[in-house]
């Protein structure tokens, strides 16, 4: 690779890694995007929607990729990188949509997908210990065959790995009932430069034994503090009875009112509120749509729960709609076809995940729908609220646009302006990456403390230096 001349640290690292029988080394790129498909996105890129636009404009990234076969090999690569003054970009499924594992600078990509074993499982203790490169849906299928579930269902479950989900603070569709990834990680094992592999959290206690909860620093650290090699995850038995209901409501406000009551009840495992923009575009429904899933160990209890959902929805002016939930459930993991169609029509798409307290969710939803639709080059905007908490909800706006860089960046600066003015958060589950680098200041003291931790744990800046920690040098 010609650019190795400008990357002496990488050259030294490759010399060491080349002789390791437990590491596969290859050179990848430049990528082609004839018709982009998320299931076949080319290395070295992750799935940030900006990359195909840049490739169209002549961006030709190349990179070296190391695939370790064992935890020992990961430890050797991390130590070799620290000694060589080189950097590493940990990588799972590459499905993050924010440029969190960017193929920039002189870094070696550390592809962890060969660490994909289920190490240990206990149905009695309700825990599975799994290697970080295991794909979420594969772990789920393995558990389902034994009558258990992770209860973690991001739309990207067939792409995302366990390690990538932890590193990105991922969130699945059942978050209202079962929590997010941070609620599922009992412990994790991570390789830190100079420290080797450490176990954070506890294998022996269902909660709280570990004192100040250091493991949480790594959940959402986007590959910048340590390489997660395995995790102990909470599992649960598959539910015996489940039910799904969908209601048409007069508008987003009424839907939000019902969703709030159901959230505070804590009985729904899935809540999804479609704004009329999305309900009409995807399902031809005039009004908002609220979808609800419930589960119970007993049929009578399930029926009582469904009765309560019906009562809450009716009180907000809701009436049952047939077929919408079923259509959504059938297509919920199928994104390639939509992406292919948009690209073929000369268009492109990005999704915007924000969150706000109850008092501001409706304003934020409306503001983003209106502001983004007014940007030249934006073709359509639709939204739904996907995750609900006692304090508020997350929003998900889908923006279809012409393939123009100016349109792309104007969309994001409008989003930043809206969340700053209204008092909301600029990401709920997608994370920061390169995309939100200009807005890291929104993190305030969180970022200053994170940078102290980064500078202490990884003084050589070995791990993902171009990602979320890339502004730490300015923070000091
Ligand atoms: C169609 C589609 C739908 C999506 N839906 C959802 C959704 O419903 N919910 C959701 O939360 N996200 C969603 N995402 C985003 C994405 O799937 C998540 O961010 C996911 O958690 C990334 O996992 P990954 O294994 O692909 O990680 P990667 O993209 O490979 O990496 C993500 C980050 O984690 C770091 N990393 C990866 N593995 C490790 C490791 N073992 N140790 C340390 N750091 C590591 C990388 O350096 C990088 O910074 C979606 C993406 C797509 C394309």
Automatic annotation (TrEMBL):
Residues 57-238 form the FAD-binding PCMH-type domain. The keyword Flavoprotein applies. InterPro entries: Alkyl-DHAP_Synthase, FAD-bd_oxidored_4_C, FAD-bd_PCMH, FAD-bd_PCMH-like_sf, FAD-bd_PCMH_sub2, FAD-linked_Oxase-like_C, Oxid_FAD_bind_N. SUPFAM superfamilies: FAD-binding/transporter-associated domain-like (SSF56176), FAD-linked oxidases, C-terminal domain (SSF55103). Its EC number is 2.5.1.26. Pfam families: FAD-oxidase_C (PF02913), FAD_binding_4 (PF01565). Keywords: FAD, Flavoprotein, Transferase. It comes from the Archaea. One of its GO terms (molecular function) is FAD binding. One of its GO terms (biological process) is lipid biosynthetic process. Belongs to the FAD-binding oxidoreductase/transferase type 4 family. This is Alkyldihydroxyacetonephosphate synthase.
């Amino acid at each position: 690779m010609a650019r190795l001349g400008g990357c002496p640290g990488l050259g030294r690292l490759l010399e060491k890694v080349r002789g390791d029988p437990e590491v596969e080394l290859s050179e990848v790129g430049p990528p082609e995007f004839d018709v982009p498909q998320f299931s076949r996105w080319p290395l070295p890129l992750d799935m940030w929607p900006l990359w195909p636009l840049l490739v169209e404009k002549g961006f030709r990234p190349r990179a070296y990729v190391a695939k370790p076969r064992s935890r020992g090999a990961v430890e050797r690569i991390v130590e070799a990188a620290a000694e060589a003054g080189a950097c590493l970009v940990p990588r799972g499924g590459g499905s993050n949509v924010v440029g969190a594992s960017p193929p920039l600078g002189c870094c070696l990509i550390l592809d962890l997908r060969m660490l994909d074993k289920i190490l240990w499982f206990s149905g009695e203790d309700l825990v599975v210990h799994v290697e970080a490169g295991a794909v979420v849906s594969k772990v789920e299928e393995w558990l389902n065959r034994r009558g258990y579930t992770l209860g973690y269902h991001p739309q990207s479950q067939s792409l995302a790995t366990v390690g990538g989900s932890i590193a990105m603070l991922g969130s699945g569709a059942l978050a209202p009932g079962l929590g997010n990834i941070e609620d599922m990680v009992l412990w994790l094992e991570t390789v830190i430069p100079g420290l080797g592999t450490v176990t954070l959290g506890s294998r022996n206690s269902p909660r709280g034994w570990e004192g100040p909860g250091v493991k949480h620093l790594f959940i959402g650290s986007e590959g910048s503090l340590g390489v997660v090699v395995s995790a102990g995850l909470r599992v649960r038995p598959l539910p015996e009875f489940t039910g799904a209901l969908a209601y048409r409501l007069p508008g987003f406000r009424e839907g939000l009112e019902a969703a709030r009551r159901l959230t505070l009840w804590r009985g729904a495992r899935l809540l999804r509120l479609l704004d009329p923009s999305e309900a009409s575009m995807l399902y031809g429904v005039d009004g908002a749509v609220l979808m609800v899933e419930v589960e119970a160990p007993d049929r009578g209890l399930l029926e009582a729960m469904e009765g309560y959902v019906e009562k809450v929805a009716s009180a907000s002016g809701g009436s049952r709609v047939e077929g919408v939930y079923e259509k959504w459930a059938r297509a919920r993991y199928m994104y390639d076809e939509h992406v292919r169609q948009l690209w073929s029509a000369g268009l492109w798409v990005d999704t915007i995940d924000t969150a706000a307290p109850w008092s501001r969710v409706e304003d934020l939803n409306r503001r983003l729908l209106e502001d983004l639709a007014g940007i030249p080059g934006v073709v359509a905007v639709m939204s739904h609220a996907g995750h609900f908490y006692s304090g508020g909800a997350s929003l998900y706006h889908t923006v279809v646009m012409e393939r123009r860089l100016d349109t792309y960046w104007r969309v994001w600066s409008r989003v930043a302006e809206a969340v700053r003015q209204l008092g909301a958060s600029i990401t709920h589950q997608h994370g920061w990456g390169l995309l939100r680098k200009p807005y890291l200041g929104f993190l305030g003291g969180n970022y200053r403390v994170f940078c102290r931790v980064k500078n202490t744990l990884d003084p050589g800046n070995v791990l993902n230096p171009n990602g979320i920690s890339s502004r730490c040098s300015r923070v000091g």
